[in-house]
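lol ok so funny story. i was supposed to be doing the assay writeup but got distracted and ended up predicting the structure for this chain instead. priorities right. anyway since i did it might as well share w the group, maybe its usefull for someone
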Amino acid sequence: MAVHVIDHPLIQHKLTYIRDENTSSKDFRDLIEEVASLMAYEVTRDMPLEETEVQTPVAKATTKVLAGRKIGIIPILRAGLGMASGILRLIPVAKVGHIGVYRDPETLQPVEYYCKLPSDLAERDLILVDPMLATGGSAVASIGFLKEHGARNIKFMCLIAAPEGIARVQSEHPEIDIFTAAIDDHLNSHGYIIPGLGDAGDRLFGTK
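and the output, tada:
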């Protein structure tokens, strides 16, 4: 497993406004989508290619197309929805599954409440998405659930990760690559990433 920090200047610029508490819900949603699209370029960098031939207006050209591996985007509800829409802009043919997991505010442990996945899950390269990798509980539970349903190739993508969350995923699912735009300092006593960006779900949907 590897941790990939995607530090492209455009991503880092937009992440600043995502963190800002004065950013409106509309702008927050737009920025999440934009950053997810930009990050998806790196997450899909190793997709296999094959040669093909096309006729240009001038001559025949030997060029490349994707080699047929199917993609699945799996947002962890509800905050992952904002990232999924951004990736779909880049890969509109991808299928989308959903895993509903929330963190119990007392125990900080994940509680699963919903799951709907593509029927051909085992044949797809999966991108599991959630804006935050905090305690790692939701990510670990979701990865485990995908494996139980036959998933073989999973990558985890988030905007901000805490060292504690990274360590937990590394411990329980050591083969999973993590892609993030930032690794923050630590978790506070309530399991929030510091400095983080607050509650991504509430900021996406204007709730408290």
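Helices lie at 9-19, 25-43, 80-90, 137-148, 163-172, 200-205. The first helix runs from residue 9 to 19.
back to the writeup now i swear
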